[in-house]
Amino acid sequence: MITTERLRLRPLTEADADWWVGLHADEEVGRFVGGYTPEQAAARLRAIQDQWERRGHGLCAVELRATGQLIGRSGLNWWEQFDETEIGWTFARAHWGRGYATEAAEAVLAWGFGTLRLPRITAMIHHGNTASTAVASRLGFARLREDTVLDRPCTVFALDREDFASR
């Protein structure tokens, strides 16, 4: 579990499936991360649990420390086809604009670079997602390349451990 001043991050599990479906059902959220049926959500969450078991990291549920309310997700995702570990963040629209994505991602980066000793972490951001691009910029990410993720064009940003440590 990772904690910050306002947030608690814990591994996602299949028990989070209903919440996952609801998060992605919001039109503005789903615009960049897509929607899920209950069956698709259960399969994705099983894959996340498997990644935790195999790699020691994965995506996390993000909860408000004060109330335990589940407000989003953040964490690390291994992409075998890119041979890269990516950080991601997705929050319920009611919680946008409060700095939660930056706060959660900062903690995930510290864990990924510190505890896990990852040499580089990427952020794959779909075109047009200006809010996520702004978060990546605040965190010190630099543009690495254009690519395609889940059949959609994206910009891949990268941050190296040394650059994170020197900030």
Approximately how much helix is present in the residues?
25-40%
CATH H-level superfamily title? Gcn5-related N-acetyltransferase (GNAT)
Low-confidence stretches: none
How many helices? The count is 6
For the record, the CATH class is Alpha Beta
Alpha carbon gap, first and last residue: 24 Å
* SSE run: EEHHHEEEHEHEEH
| Total beta strands | 8
Query: Any idea what the radius of gyration is?
Result: 15 Å
Beta-strand residue fraction: 25-35%
Q: Label the overall shape.
A: globular
- Strand line-up across the major sheet: 1-2-3-4-5
The third-level CATH topology is: Aminopeptidase
- What is the total number of structural domains? 1
State mean pLDDT (0 to 100 scale).
96
Structural classification: alpha+beta
CATH architecture: 3-Layer(aba) Sandwich
Main sheet specs: 5 strands, antiparallel
Q: Characteristics of this structure?
A:
167 residues, 38% helix, globular, alpha+beta, Aminopeptidase
Q: What does this molecule look like?
A:
- The chain is of the alpha+beta class.
- The protein is 38% helix and 33% strand.
- The chain has helices at 17-25, 27-33, 38-55, 100-115, 130-138, 161-165; strands spanning 2-3, 7-11, 59-64, 70-79, 84-91, 120-126, 142-149, 152-160.
- A 5-stranded antiparallel sheet has the order 1-2-3-4-5. Strands 6-8-7 form a 3-stranded antiparallel sheet.
- Strand 4 (70-79) and strand 5 form a beta hairpin.
- Helix 1 (17-25) crosses helix 3 (38-55).
- This is GNAT family N-acetyltransferase.
